[in-house]
Amino acid sequence: MASSRAGPFDALLRKLTVLNKLNEEEIHSIRSLPLRPQHFKAGATIISTGQLVSECCLLVEGYACRHKLASDGGRQIVSFHVAGDILDVQHLLFEKADHNVQTITDAAVVFFPMRDLRRLIEERPEIGKALWRDCLADASVLREWVLNVGRRDAKMRIAHMLCEFAAKCEAAGLGSPAHFMLPMTQEDIGDATGLTSVHVNRMLRVLTDEGVIARTGREIRIADWPRMKEVADFQPDYLHPAA
Amino acid sequence: MASSRAGPFDALLRKLTVLNKLNEEEIHSIRSLPLRPQHFKAGATIISTGQLVSECCLLVEGYACRHKLASDGGRQIVSFHVAGDILDVQHLLFEKADHNVQTITDAAVVFFPMRDLRRLIEERPEIGKALWRDCLADASVLREWVLNVGRRDAKMRIAHMLCEFAAKCEAAGLGSPAHFMLPMTQEDIGDATGLTSVHVNRMLRVLTDEGVIARTGREIRIADWPRMKEVADFQPDYLHPAA
DNA sequence: CGTCAAATTGACAAGGCTCAAGTGCCGTGG
DNA sequence: CCACGGCACTTGAGCCTTGTCAATTTGACG
Question: What pTM value is reported for the model?
Fold first, then answer.
């Protein structure tokens, strides 16, 4: 990585440069974006459906998720996010938010004007390409998410969600796949998997009793990774590395 | 539209130009792409998971879907496609397919080298922008799909799927929202909504008995559109017009 | 007219939901 | 330092939506 001074863009740049070779100049131009840092409490809504968005939001610390609400108030989480994730690339090209973005823990984000990002992309197409790839990886994860919710039973769904989250945390340097922190409640897990929190609890118990995972509070240890992969039907190819 | 001669790119261009103003030159450069037409029988697989893809595939006539398979063989359809849809933009930036693309009816497609498309995008950023927007709209539809499968009951799911498909057909000029052709089997509908074909049948019967829809063979008439929207919890904002 | 895939219907089983009660943990205030 | 309150977690009992299995009908097509 270029300049060694720690900054809000470090995690993002680490991710973008995994698959896209960005040169010093490109990296520097990203680091030079004017930004506005902001803190959010756990459970705060950063972006809500219908909102007009003119700033781009990058998660610097903490955890967040995107979700949509059904008419009966049911919440469906469609993705989890960790430090380094851009929370709303889609607003580069769409004015209006079509879903909500909410923090899971206390979180630090930086906003920068979408206008500046658009200009940057025009001047440096490689950056656009890196971001586009990020969007495509996002869509790939969404497709797997549909499969998970639509075609797997409760135990598999939860196991799969845990595997994916473990992989995401590891890629972001937030833990090893064998041992990481789950920031979300069992209610959140239910909203992500299309189950109730009660049933999530029962399935976590089953996974624990079977010795596939071990839990202490919200710390998760995947005790038997090969069996976990099998229980979860987890084939990480869909997580195109840059995701 | 520029040249009035009917061609394989007409439907795509109609879609892309809804929100992106492409000039004559840009439109011409798309029309000039070297292409290889091909026909597929109903149920044929066009792209399968793991395959290395070097050509871009545009659906010219007929219907198709994308799907993923679970370890137990269960199939989850993640999107339906009509004439004018590009079936694999993601391979612009990813080599390997992470899902399957299959025809639903007999279909006509054209392939053109991904290399040419990449060059075109570099030369004419507006085209890249239009395609990027298309990807983002795709992701938005996927998020709604997750919500549909994860948080709505069987009747709503099916009603929602029908509304979305009606909107897609109308946008592609393939019918009015009140009256259109369903190309897929009830098994396909089940695979798209995370239900069994048996239960899809039951729910279609309920919707019919309630007078919300009317069916003759695979023709669907939405008899009571306001009620249908309500039953389906259908708010079409997520279908960003260019989709 | 025969064949085959899709649609339809019924009976029964089961996975997951609802409702309800109780437990544990942690931050706050006295 | 302890008591309290709130939220998340845990567990049980019974119900309901959806799945499974199986038989039958319909429709398209050769």
Answer: 0.95
